[in-house]
């Protein structure tokens, strides 16, 4: 007699049926080990581990410190919202590709709201010019790989920066240091969908290839990209660097921010340049300081107490 298995509901958002089956098992048993999940699903441990990695990548689960490792599910409402947002971003990116083709097709005709810039040197120069001309605000979506140097905030009086980094862009300590610039509010997100710089909400620079940049002037497309940025900003995790008088040091806030975004202990250790055991030891101290039993709970309590100010 076969046990009842619910029909998959997340396939439309890019989640395979086996990943969803394991996610459902995790919802039924929060803070489960690989062994627990193997017993619940009847899968070999290697299969469970493989699909847990997929859930971590999708943002549907996170790993808590300690041995044995414990896995906790993401809250379904937030997880599904993020998956849907990524799907929307992929659709936007596809439409932008069509826009680039249209701009190239119309090149030489009457100037429209788009200009195609080619070549790493020309792209770097245009990034610099856009920042120099900004009067009030610069918005940035940043992700690797880089054909030119990533955008670095300029210390310009009266100009604020809001930057969303892809987590893969935070592996270099120099980039983390650049994010500390005055007047800059930084957040991070897994799988940032686009490379984008918008100056004063009037000039948009969208990089569509290693050496291709589309400059956007006021248009419905630029308005759509601004709405996408605000949606991603709401989903992104603040990067915290300044102490706020609580029990967390600057290093503790940085570690907790990375953990809250879903990075594993190994990935955090690699980004901070320390041993994994050091990350685990510091995380245990943070959990104790915040009277929390999981990293998710610690992140909530730190946010409620104002200890993770952007």
Automatic annotation (TrEMBL):
Return any one Pfam family short name. TrmB
Q: Organism's domain of life?
A: Bacteria
Tell me, what is an example of a GO biological process annotation in this record?
A: regulation of DNA-templated transcription
Domain annotation HTH luxR-type: ranges: 243-306
**Which positions are tagged coiled coil?**
none
Q: Name one GO molecular function term.
A: DNA binding
Name the PANTHER family on file: HTH-TYPE TRANSCRIPTIONAL REGULATOR TRMBL2
The protein's name: Transcriptional regulator, TrmB
User: Which organism's genome codes for this protein?
Assistant: Kribbella flavida (strain DSM 17836 / JCM 10339 / NBRC 14399)
